[in-house]
Amino acid sequence: MAKGGMSLGEGKDGNQENMAAWLLGVNTLKIQPFSLPPLGPHDVRVRMKAVGICGSDVHYLKTLQCAHFVVKEPMVMGHECAGVIEEVGTEVKTLVPGDRVALEPGISCWRCDQCKDGRYNLCPDMKFFATPPVHGSLANQVVHPSDLCFKLPDNVSLEEGAMCEPLSVGVHACRRANIGPETKVLVMGAGPIGLVTMLAARAFGAPRIVIVDVDDHRLSVAKELGADEIVKVSTHIQDVAKEVEQIRKTMGAGIDVTFDCAGFDKTMSTALTATSAGGKVCLVGMGHNEMTVPLTPAAAREVDVIGIFRYKNTWPLCLEFLRTGKIDVKPLITHRFGFSQQEVEEAFETSARGGSAIKVMFNL
Hints:
Helix content is 28%, strand content 27%.
């Protein structure tokens, strides 16, 4: 897989040296050189302009692990990104230098059964930015396949382009759950993924959306972004029954689809219990590996449990939602940092603290 970058300092040949933010150990990040690979005939070289911090990035920083992915050697961070084309390969026909693009971060093999069946997000040989052992995109420049670089509409900013990656998670979840104009939606969790899932559900036509969280600030943000109603809940599993009653009353109708965007025993238990008979529960993102949940009562009501992993073929629709204004991701970007050693460290700590931080963005 080809990736790399450029800027700070001069290389031995007189060219500017590409620099990147490397994860060297627990809570240890350092900006240092990152070699740019050769440009293949179907590749483009992109100068990074906007890179967001994802929860998985924070997990890697704090524990060197996210789900079953483990960092065993130094790795360049970042996968939510957009930039400007600097150079194109000899066979690239659709992009030219100067084009602003959003990058889809995963390169699948296109040979396995999953890829051939169109579900390339499940490719066992996927090479994904900042998923060990693959390096990421928090660098001055990277090299990437041209077919995974999507030209931004004139009225869509580079920051919005970088937001296509988290938004794609919500779009893929809504497709998997068949969200439409008659689907009443419950969202468990008002963090970044819960919020983009809410925005996507609205864009898909969901007429009523209730979002649940333990944090007042995030609930207020969800309300400002268009949630019909918000419900504050506790972290105590013994409160599930009374909270389900409150959630159902707040919805005022049957809950057709619940998105669990938190992934705890309690949130999944609440989702399975609150969802109407014949409905769906979609587990979004990387929740706990093992959960104790009331599956049998849910099964008796024919509640379907579906999962998602990343996304597939979402960038064109995300960009159309952004172009037309059906989705506005700009309010989600709460903090911005430059690309210096001090700012990289501060940005990751800001993201890790949470609080008022929703999406932390680097402007390179």
